[in-house]
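If your schedule permits, I should be very grateful for your opinion on a structural question. Please examine both parts with care and let me know of anything in them that strikes you as inconsistent. The record follows directly beneath this note:
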Amino acid sequence: MSSHVPLPRERHSKSKLFVTLSSLSSKKKEHLKCIKTHAFNYRCTIVAPDSTDIGQLVKNHVNCYYRVTLKLSDLIDPAFIAAFIKNNTLIALSLGRRIDTDDVFAIDGHGTLILSVCKDTYESLGIVGTQAQVPLERGSRFVIKIDLRAACMVPEKKYYQRIKAGFDAVLNEGVEFLVGYYDAETGGSLNFDVLGATQCAPVVEEHTVVDALVPQLSELLTAKDKAAEDWIERAQDVFEWVGLATLGSSQVTSAVADSEVSEYSVSEPYTKASLRVVSVSGMLSPMAISAIAQRLTIQASTQDAACGTFLCVWGHEDAPVSWASSEHSYLTSGEHMFVQAYIPQSDRCAIFQACGPWDSHS
């Protein structure tokens, strides 16, 4: 059983925050669905009781990724599709291109090539797409999705020939990509054997927060009225606390606000505990994050810990989609991120999903 609660937009500067309360044993597996449909991740931070060896857990599951310059025509080459798209999982995102002003390209891990392009590029390409849902003041954008696994994506078909001609005539320059290539079954990293590809390793950082004041989560799970003012404030307090904890802020160790720094203070009820904070950044696969989450839920449900465990994941701000096929763009920020809170000795989970006003996730 789960409940999905959108918090009022006016309460968080027009950005969107959704809270889902879910059972880890539910067949829907809402916590894993949130992870597996969020393809473009650049940072993951875990906040857990200091007694938990999460540093080694993260190192055991994160995968290498690649930087490489390719032309779009390379991505539709039959040999490339056969080698990297048909049978395994490839996630790619163009690097150094802004989703609100530039042409952005990505492969979503399910064989779909996504082009988010400006009006001039779209009209020159001659490939059918749809107008983007985001209300850009700088001019219309268009989204083109190409199923690289489709039967029509072979040189003999007119559809393929139209795409190839458009790429060769309009989008014919090399594009730098971040690429993750993984085994479809195990999620393990595979060798991306392409000329010029450089292997990169995710960066892992760790620190400890002593005597942190950790919000208790029971009120979020047991309250009957999820639209009540007190419940909304509590949900936002927890979400804000996680953000400060991932940054190692000293504000999570005090119940009294320092007016010279911030008006924030940890609200009651809370538990005092020392925390281990581990962050990993790079091109992070949903499969790796899912494996980490499953280990964390086992630890949280079986260990007699003083406080909950929190998993926080940030998406690439210039990705063309956030969750699944939800269009993503940039207004004052390109945020799309989620937090999962696992309650000690419980199978309950609170999931926070945040995204900007120009993101179609709902």
Notes: The chain is about 25% helix and 30% strand.
